[in-house]
Amino acid sequence: MISARIRPVWCTIILTVLTLAQQSNSQAQGLVWSIPEPGTSVKYAGTYSQVTFRPQSSKGDLSLEWRSTLETRCLERVTANYHGEDVPCVWLEFEAVTGQLVDGSLESGPGGQRIYKVLVPESAINGLEFFRSEVPNAYLPVVEGYEKIGDGKVERFKLPVLQVFPLLTQLLINDRLKDEGQENVTVTTGEYPAQKVTCQTGLEDPSTRTTNQSQIWISDQIPFGLVKWQIRIDREVKTPADTRDQFQKSSEISIDMQAVEITSNATSKLSTPAAE
Fold it and tell me: In the chain, which end has fewer C-beta atoms inside a 10 angstrom radius, N or C?
């Protein structure tokens, strides 16, 4: 179980990325760039680490690390009514777990596991065409869906969209992106020719300044298109009366995720009417 000391720090991470989400325009959902065959799943794994800088503490800076997994599953393609029209849709399922390794097992603690099963119009998955759309999707539109948080019950997903950032990932890609060109990337599942995209997004108010630097590698040779991603979130603080040049670095979050497993017989983890 995650200790009481760690839970408040994790809450700070969530608040930080929520604030960035509210301020970022034309954001890409980031996790699904293409639709593979039904039954396909890709599991990503990596680390979340945070350093809290404490220059006045005799104990020095506080460093914490979590392990994280994210699995994306393509379950079934169907035709469903969306905005009054019958359109091709796909059932996607996302399972995110963040916690600490205890005796070789990932202990997530309360709320550390999230599963979302959503029916999405296929037209919403348009790969890099996202950045040429007149109205970019910062989310996945949802026809219907289900969710399960921690040890809670499976419930209907009541929102019209799934906001991938920050519910599932802190990956933040928007219209500030830079195309860094092609490079070969080697991860646990293999080597892929990939397009590297970087994006830096900042937010500042009179007392805090937060910067999200995201890097993502995309390839059409891996299901869903996502190979790996790396993120750094810097938070600086000052008093409202101080000038901007008096911001002091408060914390640094580093996230490193990569594809570690691909399967072709995935099934839903949720028992729902749609799965019966």
Answer: C
